[in-house]
Structure formats: structure tokens, C-alpha cells
Amino acid sequence: MSEVFGIPTQALFGQLLIGLINGSFYALLSLGLAVIFGLLNIINFAHGAQYMMGAFCAWFLLNKLGLSYWWALLLAPLIVGATGVVIERLMLSRLYKLDHLYGFLLTFGLALMIQGLFRHEFGSTGLPYSIPSALEGGQNLGFMFLPNYRAWVIVSSLIVCLGTWFMIEKTKLGSYLRAATENRELVQAFGINTPRMITLTYGFGVALAAFAGVMAAPIYSVSPLMGADLIIVVFAVVVIGGMGSIMGSIVTGFVLGLAEGLTKVFYPEASNVVIFVIMAIVLMIKPAGLFGAEK
Predict the structure, then answer these.
(1) What is the spatial distance between Cα 229 and Cα 227, in angstroms, rounded to a whole number?
(2) What's this model's pTM, rounded to 2 decimal places?
(3) Maximum Cα interatomic distance, the chain, rounded to a whole number of Å
(4) Are the CB atoms for 291 and 251 separated by under 8 Å?
(5) For residues 283 and 36, what is the distance between their CA atoms, to the nearest angstrom?
(6) Which helix (H) or strand (E) holds 3?
(7) Residue 294 confidence (pLDDT)
(8) Which whole-number Å values give the CA distances from 53 to 40, 80, 129, in the listed order?
(9) What percent of the chain has pLDDT over 90?
């Protein structure tokens, strides 16, 4: 068996694959956080709970309505995104003129309430969700075995992330959104309904979290605490990439996933803290983050 730096090739590439998969979820979730913070200036701590809601929505659709994974990929983001629209209209819209701390505290409380409700109903034990039959099996690449579903997660995550970046950075709609963050009154004077646009933006960010939750369901068990275990790491990814930076969230998510995978190979004891060590180093060198704009 061939080796790289004394590590079996199959083990090395296996951990890199796990790192890419984790990076896919880091990128999707941090992208949703970046969209919400960059365009609404809200630190959405409920993002992990909304990711969990996406996974549970897929589980409900399959077990209660008999709808497959592919339907869940379409419907779960719409359903959970709609709950985000309600939250924004009833609660968050009242906080935009206040300090960021108020939005953080509100969404933190919402996250605890949502997780508590699901935990009371389903307990802490994870619920299984099977891989769709079309994506079962895998490909033997010679140096490693690549499961089809894992490959699907990585590719679809990249497509969604880059599509979101293109929409926000390169389209007229994106220019309206970015302009609304600078001067809402001026944008509204041109006949654009900025409150509706802001509401839909929050709903879209929440839908991204739900989409990630659906994709995570066949890999991880569907659990009320699955978002709580991930959200702190995702916030670290957002800080490293630069708060509100769309491309920063995407690139940093995938890179840190790979860094975490490599750390598990060469220094497993540090794998749980490597992202936070990188965050501390980045903040000392560039407090605004790698892709963030200095103020």
C-alpha cells in the first residue's frame, strides 16, 4: 500500500473526502449566515436550528407523506424558508435600528426554543434517513472509494454556493440588495419594495440552511441537536472569511473543512480546535477576516 508522509494513501484521501464533505456544509451554512448578516446586519444564531429543521422536514416528508429525498430538496427549503419569513416579519423587522446584540439575543432565544421543542418531541436519539437509491454505491478511483452520495453533496453544494454568489454579485437583483444595505430609503424612492426584499432575503438565507439540512440527513442522523453541534464552528468560518463576505464564506468553508480533515490525519488531538486556532491567528493579523473589508 502506497504512503504519503508515512500515512497510507487511502486513509489520507479518505480524510480529505470527509473534510470536503464537512466543508460543503460549512460553506452552505456560513453562506446563509453571510447573506443574512451582509444584507440585514442580523447575527442569526437560529441558523443551526433552521438547518436541523430542514433535516426534520425531510424526515417528515418521507415518513409521513411518502415524499422522496428529491421532493424534500425542493420542499424543505421552501417550508423552512417560509418560517423564516414569518420570523423576520413578526420579530426581526423591529430590531434593524437597534444594536446587533438585540438580533443576536433574539435569534439565540429562538434557537433554544426550537431545539427544546424538537428535543421534547423526539428526544436526543438520532432518526435514520436513507440515501436515495439513485445515489447508492460509489466509484473505485484506485487510490480510494468515492461514495456517490458524498460526491453529490460536494458538487451540489458548490453549485448552490457559486449560484448564490453570482446572483448577489453579478445580477440586477443583487445590486438592489446591496444598495438596500447602504441606503434603504434611497432604494425605496426608486419604487423598490425594500421591506419585502429584506424579508425574502432572510427567508432565502434560512432556506440555504434547510437545504444543507436535507443533504446532511442521509449522512448524519436527524437529531434535534445536530445544528447546535455545528453552529459554533460555522460562526468561526464566517469570522475567518469576513462577516458578510459571500465569497469569503464559500472559500473559507471548503478550505477549513480540508484543514480539519488533514489535521485528523497528522495530529488527531487538535482536529476539534484547529478551526478556532486558525480564527485566532486570522483575527490577530486581519481583524476584518480574510475577505472582509477594513472599516
Answers:
(1) 5
(2) 0.92
(3) 68
(4) yes
(5) 22
(6) strand 3-4
(7) 62
(8) 22, 7, 14
(9) 46
* Contact between residue 43 and residue 37 where contact means Cβ atoms under 8 Å apart: yes
Which of 1.20.1530, 2.40.128, 1.10.3470, 3.30.460 is the CATH number of 10-123+145-285? 1.10.3470
Contacts of 14 (CB under 8 A, 6+ apart): 144
**Contact by Cβ (8 Å): 270, 282:** no
At position 189, the amino acid (one-letter code) is: A
Question: What are 44's three cell numbers?
Answer: 442569526
Residue 20, CB-side half-sphere exposure with 13 Å CA sphere: 18
The answer to whether the CB of 38 falls within 8 A of the CB of 181 is: yes
pLDDT value for 6 = 57
Q: For the chain, which residues make up each domain, given as ranges? A: 10-123+145-285
Task: Find where cell 448577489 sits.
Answer: 168
Q: Is 48 exposed, middle or buried (0-12, 13-18, 19+ CB in 10 A)?
A: buried
pLDDT tens digits for range 147-185: 899 999 999 999 999 999 999 888 888 787 777 766 777
